[in-house]
Amino acid sequence: MERVDGEPIRCNIHCVVCSTSNQQAHAFDVARMLRHAGYRVVLEHIAGKSPQSLRRVLEEGTRLGAQMTVLVGGSDVSSDEVSIIAASPRPAQRTVKIKELPNLLRH
C-alpha cells in the first residue's frame, strides 16, 4: 500500500460486506444490491468465527475508510437481516433488515 506523508491512502469506500465461507453467495448478493444503489463496497471473507478474524476485517474497514462493516449470516440473524458495525471509536453491533442498508449509508 502506498503512503503519502506516512499516512496510508484511504479508498473511502462506503462499507465492507463480509461473511464466512458458507454465506459467501448471500454476501455477494448484498454487496451487489449496494453497488447497484451507487455505493462503493468491498467484499471480504472471514476465516472462521473467532474474534480475531472479525477484528482483522474491522481493521481493514477502518484502513479503507468504510462507514460500516456488514456481517452476513451471523448467528441469531434471519436470512433477510444482517449485522452491522458502524465505524466509530466505540463500535456497536446491531441487526437490521437488508433492504434498510442503503438508508444507513451516506453518499
Description:
- Helix content is 29%, strand content 27%.
- It is α/β, with parallel strands linked by helices and 107 residues long.
CATH topology of the domain at 7-74: Rossmann fold
The major beta sheet can be summarized as: 5 strands, mixed
> Based on the structure given, which CATH architecture of the domain at 7-74 is correct?
3-Layer(aba) Sandwich
Strand content range: 25-35%
Which segments are poorly predicted (pLDDT under 50) over 5 or more consecutive residues?
none
* Average pLDDT number: 87
Order of helices and strands: EEEHEHEEEH
Which bin fits the share of residues in helices?
Answer: 25-40%
Classified by CATH, the class of the domain at 7-74 is Alpha Beta
Gyration radius, to the nearest Å? 13 Å
In one word, what is the shape?
globular
Q: Helical segment tally?
A: 3
Global structural class = alpha/beta
Please count the beta strands (DSSP E, at least 2 residues each): 7
Distance between the termini: 25 Å
Describe the structure using short key phrases.
Rossmann fold, 107 residues, alpha/beta, two-stranded antiparallel ribbon
Offer a concise description of the structure:
The chain has 3 helices and 7 strands, in the order E-E-E-H-E-H-E-E-E-H. With 107 residues, it is of the alpha/beta class. It has a domain of 68 residues: Rossmann fold.
Topology of this protein?
Layout: E1 3-4, E2 7-8, E3 15-19, H1 24-36, E4 41-45, H2 51-64, E5 68-71, E6 81-86, E7 93-97, H3 101-104
Parallel strand pairs: 3-4, 3-5
Antiparallel strand pairs: 1-2, 5-6, 6-7
